[in-house]
From TrEMBL:
Similarity-based family: Belongs to the drug/metabolite transporter (DMT) superfamily. Small multidrug resistance (SMR) (TC 2.A.7.1) family. Gdx/SugE subfamily.
Lineage: Bacteria, Pseudomonadati, Pseudomonadota, Alphaproteobacteria, Rhodobacterales
Species name: Litoreibacter meonggei
Gene3D superfamilies cross-referenced by the UniProt entry: 1.10.3730.20
Biological process per Gene Ontology, one example term: xenobiotic detoxification by transmembrane export across the plasma membrane
Location in the cell: Cell membrane
Membrane-crossing segments per the record: 27-46, 58-78, 84-102
Bilayer disposition of the protein: Multi-pass membrane protein
SUPFAM superfamilies listed in its UniProt record: Multidrug resistance efflux transporter EmrE (SSF103481)
Domain of life: Bacteria
Keywords attached to this entry: Cell membrane, Membrane, Transmembrane, Transmembrane helix, Transport
Protein name stated in the entry: Guanidinium exporter
GO CC annotations, alphabetized: plasma membrane
Main location: membrane
């Protein structure tokens, strides 16, 4: 169950990062509310996952999911640049997440 909490926490991190961008520095009400609510939910799920998972593993996987997800969302929905070096960096993050999962006993 802690891995499920962690995956959903990471997915919510993608959501709040996207809506934080859309809030234009918290000047737009609806995106700001979505940011705050999903951020709180993401942190809550991360804390549940951390009951069992090691701190380093949980935090690295959570931020990795958020980083790769925000990278992908930025490319798909915000027309951000994609180039081989950025793709290689995202792949390295992904490999790091997999290694953290494989090396975790929980």
């Amino acid at each position: 169950m802690p891995w499920i909490y962690l995956i959903f926490a990471g997915l919510l991190e993608i959501v709040w990062a996207f809506f934080m961008k859309k809030s234009v520095g918290f000047t737009l009400f609806v995106p700001s509310v979505i940011t705050i609510v999903t951020m709180a939910a993401s942190f809550a799920l991360l804390s549940l996952a951390m009951r069992t998972l090691p701190l380093g593993t949980a935090y690295a996987v959570w931020t990795g999911i958020g980083a790769i997800g925000a990278f992908a969302v930025g490319i798909v929905f915000l027309d951000e640049a994609v180039n081989p070096l950025r793709l290689a960096a995202a792949m390295l993050i992904f490999v790091g997440i997999l290694l953290m999962k494989v090396s975790s006993a929980a």
